[in-house]
Amino acid sequence: MDRKQAIIESATRLFAEKGFYSTSTIEVAETAGVAHGTLFYHYKNKEGIVLEIFRHAKKVYLQELEISVANRPTGMEKIESMLRFNAAFKRTHSRQLLIFLRDFPEKLTSEESELKTMVKETNAQVLAIISRCLTEGIEDGSVAPVDTDKTAYIINGLIFGLLHMDLLSPVQVPELEANVIAFCRAALSPAVPEQYASSQ
Questions:
Q1: Pair 156, 127: CB distance under 8 Å
Q2: Which CATH number fits domain 51-199: 2.40.30.10, 2.20.28.160, 1.10.357.10, 2.40.30.30?
Q3: 0.85 surpassed by pTM
């Protein structure tokens, strides 16, 4: 493992365990086994480290999300595969997600920043993928005729809300992956009453 990767891995673990604001760059350098100056050679500051963590997580997430839906034969199956993928991604990237959800909400409501831009771009890309899967489902008959843009927001909100609840709730959250898939399947089924589909 090279020094840059060691810094990222150490920072991810420390930020998740102690919090971004409670972790010093000295701790990150020591845990990574590098000199403090080496850390600043690769990253201008602590914010630069966390942006790199998110940049990498975003790249992996979007690539693997596209793969998860690529070869599914129907739009409904693409949506179900996407929901399974998100549950798996939460398990494998819980540290990165915890840092983001716990430490940075206020940064996203303040002035424009690289982090805020990255979040906006990622959200737009995810919504586009969901909307595309819904459109394919409507065309192949596996999804009811719905407003694909609004429904994409609902599905994305469901995913994000469950993630937030699972990682930050003080109470134990049960395993809900199968229930979420069943809920979305029922909500998106072509058997949904006409008045619901038209209200979208």
A1: yes
A2: 1.10.357.10
A3: yes
